[in-house]
Amino acid sequence: MSVLWVFLHLLILSWEDMKDQMLSFWLLLELLLTGLLTALWNGREIVWFPGLFLLVVGKLSGERIGLGDGWLLLALGMWLPYGMLMEILFLGLLAGAGYGILSGKKEIPLVPFFTVGFVLTVWGTII
């Protein structure tokens, strides 16, 4: 059930990112808080580092990487273990970089690529 919850949020956020290059604060907050409550309830470890790192990089780079992407990774860290989150980050950045190079675009929405990374990572664990 939690996989579906996260996936639905990723789909909506992907659409927002492609359309407006902005992410809904309230949707990110909902994903983060429900993940935090679920993690605390289940005694699961919360993964802070990747999201916080991306927020710092985004701030230091003048938001060349959007702060919304950092907040999304922070929210995903409430739901996913470190290894899965790093795999999603790696796959998303790799796919996004490939798309940027092939399309010649300098600014691309990252959330759709994180969503692809999520699907590939979750699919790989299910199989």
From TrEMBL:
Transmembrane segments: 24-41, 46-62, 82-102, 109-126
MF annotations from Gene Ontology: aspartic-type endopeptidase activity
InterPro entries according to UniProt: Prepilin_IV_endopep_pep
Keyword line: Hydrolase, Membrane, Transmembrane, Transmembrane helix
EC assignment: 3.4.23.43
Stretches assigned to the Prepilin type IV endopeptidase peptidase domain: 6-101
Family matches, as Gene3D superfamilies: 1.20.120.1220
Record's protein name: Prepilin peptidase
